[in-house]
Write a structure and sequence with these properties.
The complex is a heterodimer of chains A (268) and B (220). Chain A is mainly alpha-helical and 268 residues long. Chain A contains 8 helices and no strands. The chains are: A mainly alpha (268), B mainly alpha (220).
């Protein structure tokens, strides 16, 4: 039997946990992802607004769905991702994971807000009101508060190490509570009002609409990943500003661009 | 084992007697509860029928906010004068210390607030059996709110604007408690009581290790 060796941080999946390697990778990924987001969104909007047929019941107003559904989807998954990276941080103590959770939060909050706003704009023509205390709307609103609490906590706790750990604990507490909150709200809603609005009325979706929806979802994902990665890069650079590799790659104040490039080339 | 129980009871007794000596500070929640419940009928039409409808909601929300108001004091005073670090060095584990402090908070804040509920319920024209139901629901709710709040209080310990931050963290987490407690207080049937009991057990089980981890961060 071979003796077990400690994992080498310079190879394998752990190498991306090093801020230096991550920065190089993210720098290469952001632009293609943003380009993909723009292309997919253009295609999706064309499909959704031009090719997709008009809805028999809702007329044109249903088309806001092409923004609303991807935003809600991203909003919910991003919270799970935040909880996942927080758990990774608490187990492996990789600083980058905690920073990842902090980079995800503003995007999640923005998407939740977008989902609430488009939802209420959609609600006015279909239900006749901007807001109902429906289970989905209410739990989306609470999700927004969870995001805001996380952002406020990680921004106001000092030093950074404590902010990382405190934010991770909070994200996990929130993730445990999300199903409880959701089911309590559903239960409260079914007790208080009859099913005046039904989402699952068995309307099958036209294939063109589905294509547009998938394109827009892919665009939302590409955009979110690109924004999260570039936000994470900024967080890393802020945190590691004193580190040697940052000076070599981005230069000390007053260093010219050519000097920096030469230094970076000699490094690699 | 016996030694551990003695230390646990010591922490509990210390917190209860501290709360008794700072009576004015401990009464903040009670005064707030009474003020909210008194102002509410003045803002709406005080017809007995309407009051009976909103009474349970006002008592539940008022109790929740009054409890929230006192949560900051759970660790803050001990942290300020340094005794929190001493408490965390005791021979019992830190989650047990948190548990003792949560228990003391439930006794010194939760029970007085619960005892005030029947008086307020009478102001809202509730009937005999219903008053008892509201009071019982509040009796179960208060410890759950303390347990959830202990995590928030530990996370925001020593942070500027901790009060606002605590309220923001607390709000989404206490929604299930509010929903189930209001149902338990307002409607017949055992279902909400079981759910409240589940929340009670779950929150007391999970909150002490989470709050202990947050406290270690704050004290480091």
């Amino acid at each position: 039997m071979k003796p077990s060796r400690p994992p080498n941080p310079e190879s394998g999946w752990l190498q991306w946990a090093s801020p230096r390697n991550f920065d190089a990778l993210a720098g290469r990924l952001v632009r293609p992802l943003l380009a993909a987001a723009v292309c997919l969104a253009g295609l999706g909007l064309f499909w959704g607004f031009y090719l997709a047929p008009i809805d028999a019941v809702q007329g044109h107003s249903y088309r806001i769905m092409f923004l609303h559904v991807p935003a809600s989807w991203v909003a919910m998954i991003v919270y799970l991702a935040m909880a996942f990276w927080s758990a990774v941080y608490l187990v492996f103590r990789t600083r980058l994971s905690a920073m990842m959770a902090q980079a995800l939060a503003p995007t999640g909050a923005l998407m939740t807000l977008l989902s609430l706003v488009t939802g209420s704009l959609w609600g006015k023509p279909t239900w006749g009101t901007y807001w109902v205390w429906d289970a989905r709307l209410t739990s989306m609103l609470l999700l927004l508060f969870l995001y805001l609490g996380f952002i406020a906590l990680t921004r106001s706790v000092t030093p950074a190490r404590r902010a990382d750990a405190a934010g991770s604990i909070l994200a996990l507490i929130g993730a445990v509570n999300v199903p409880v909150i959701y089911f309590s709200v559903v239960w409260w809603n079914t007790l208080h009002q009859g099913a005046s609005i039904s989402f699952d009325s068995g309307v099958s979706i036209h294939p063109t609409m589905l294509t547009a929806l998938l394109l827009m979802s892919a665009a939302a994902w590409a955009y979110s990943i690109a924004v999260v990665l570039s936000r994470l890069r900024v967080l890393v650079l802020e945190r590691e500003a004193q580190a040697e590799w940052v000076g070599r790659r981005y230069g000390a104040p007053g260093q010219s661009r050519n000097e920096i490039r030469r230094l970076d080339e000699t490094e690699s | 084992m016996r030694q551990g129980a003695r230390v646990f009871l010591g922490v509990l007794g210390r917190d209860v007697s501290l709360a008794w000596r700072n009576r004015l500070q401990s009464a903040t929640g009670l005064v707030f509860f009474a003020v909210v419940a008194t102002l509410f009928p003045l803002a709406i039409d005080p017809q007995p029928e309407l009051l009976r409808q909103v009474g349970v909601a006002v008592i539940m929300v008022g109790g929740l906010l009054a409890n929230l108001l006192t949560l900051r004091a759970l660790f803050e005073d001990d942290w300020r004068d340094g005794s929190l670090s001493q408490l965390m060095l005791l021979s019992i584990p830190v989650p047990a210390v948190v548990l003792a402090k949560m228990l003391a908070h439930s006794i010194t804040v939760g029970i007085p607030l619960t005892l005030m509920a029947p008086l307020l319920a009478m102001q809202y024209q509730l009937e005999g059996g219903h008053i008892l139901q509201v009071t019982l629901a509040l009796l179960v709710t208060m410890p759950i709110l303390t347990a959830i709040g202990a995590m928030g209080a530990a996370l925001t310990l020593g942070v500027p604007q901790a009060g606002l931050l605590l309220a923001l963290l607390h709000l989404p987490l206490c929604v299930p408690v509010l929903v189930f407690a209001s149902q338990a207080a307002a409607s017949p049937g055992p279902a909400p009581w079981w759910l409240l009991a589940a929340l009670f057990v779950g929150s007391w089980f999970f909150s002490s290790p989470a709050a202990a981890a947050a406290l270690r961060l704050a004290v480091e």
